[in-house]
Amino acid sequence: MKSLVVVGNGSLGLWWCFHLTQLQKKSLCKAFLVTRTEESAQSINEKGIIVEDKTSAAYVFDKNNRTMLNTSNTVCFHCPSFSNLKQLSEKLQGYADILLLCVKQYHLKSALENCTELLSSKGVAVSFCNGIGNLETVASFVGANRAAAAITYEAVERINSRTIIHWSSGRTIFADTLTYSPELNANLQFLHDILKQQNLPIELLNSVDARKEMWKKLAVNCVINPLATIIRVRNGLLSDRIPESLFEGICWEIVRTAERSGIILDHSDLMVQISETIKNSSRNICSTLQDIQNGRPTEIEALNGAVAHLARKYGLSVPYCETLFHLVKAMEARQDTTA
Ligand SMILES: NC(=O)c1ccc[n+]([C@@H]2O[C@H](COP(=O)([O-])OP(=O)(O)OC[C@H]3O[C@@H](n4cnc5c(N)ncnc54)[C@H](OP(=O)(O)O)[C@@H]3O)[C@@H](O)[C@H]2O)c1
């Protein structure tokens, strides 16, 4: 039976823990969670993880497969959690077939430093990070033939170290975007197949299509995240408060930058994707705004910052992305001052 390790007890980490724990009950995999702090691991081990689901009919309510939520759509479950891997390393070294990296882009390196030794020699690491450039970081630790990307439109919010709200469901795409390898492919196929059993919209794509999907998700995040953060609204209010021409301008910058990176995107397709994501995640507070509200750094450098960086390299001008990047950075910096 394959062993899966979720790294990060944040929004996405706890969400995947929920599904993997259900699959473990059906003997389809083994799963455990790695947290950053001992406090989080202790609290999760003692009191369990709580998922509140705000979507309707998110699951098949089958009395045999134990995936049902109770009437308040809240479930509490247990998933073994560890933080101090050094103490456990002998027991766990080479244990994992798949690492699901559910940390912010700026924590990816430290998470990999801590967890790479958990991977078996053929094990693979899957990064759920938004933005671009993360997969290269993963590959620098495990090799390109063992690094994969997950692009997800699930919308989950973390309330505390063991509680999340699932706001909306969306596609999750797995892909070996850097290079093909049979081991990587087999592990992604396995992940796809078991998560499908949880009735989730999971897809497996080839690397060319997946790179395109990665840029599409980047466009969605480059529009929604900085704008919702600057005007401090839940996603659903964006279409009322921001003129469509601004969405269009940001998308054109991404289309042109992607093209120079060898990815052909369709502008009207991006606009549809953005409006669908806003509609589907209307009650969600985007992660960048959550970060600002909680005094944490944001991932804007891997979003509009990364587009601006690439565009500069290509000699392109992307004033919308540059401006939004600097405004969000200024909001981050403002948290350090008393003015
Ligand atoms: N949330 C969503 O709906 C969603 C959707 C699509 C994509 N994403 C992307 O997925 C990634 C994760 O997002 P998230 O929303 O789950 O973030 P999050 O709620 O901030 O959670 C990140 C978690 O990573 C933990 N962490 C940091 N360093 C670690 C380490 N060395 N070892 C173990 N755990 C570590 C943090 O621990 P502490 O709590 O102790 O700091 C935190 O619990 C981001 O790139 C995000 O953009 C998220």
Structural write-up:
Residues 5-176 form the Ketopantoate reductase N-terminal domain. One of its GO terms (molecular function) is 2-dehydropantoate 2-reductase activity. Keywords: NADP, Oxidoreductase. Residues 210-332 form the Ketopantoate reductase C-terminal domain. The chain is an alpha/beta fold and 339 residues long. The protein has two domains: 3-205, Rossmann fold (3-Layer(aba) Sandwich), CATH 3.40.50; 210-334, N-(1-d-carboxylethyl)-l-norvaline Dehydrogenase, domain 2 (Orthogonal Bundle). It contains 13 helices and twelve strands. It has an eight-stranded mixed beta sheet, sandwiched between helices. Strands 4-3-10-9 form a four-stranded mixed beta sheet. The model is unreliable at 57-70 (pLDDT under 50). Bound molecules: NADP nicotinamide-adenine-dinucleotide phosphate.
Compact summary:
The protein has 339 residues and is an alpha/beta fold.
Task: Record the SSE blueprint.
Elements: E1 3-7, H1 11-25, E2 30-34, H2 38-47, E3 49-53, E4 74-77, E5 81-82, H3 85-92, E6 96-101, H4 108-115, E7 119-127, H5 134-142, E8 147-152, E9 155-160, E10 163-168, E11 172-175, H6 182-196, E12 202-205, H7 207-230, H8 238-241, H9 244-260, H10 267-280, H11 287-293, H12 304-314, H13 319-334
Parallel strand pairs: 1-2, 1-6, 2-5, 3-10, 6-7, 7-8, 11-12
Antiparallel strand pairs: 3-4, 8-11, 9-10
Helix pairs in contact: 4-5, 7-9, 7-10, 7-11, 7-13, 9-12, 12-13
The structure holds NADP nicotinamide-adenine-dinucleotide phosphate.
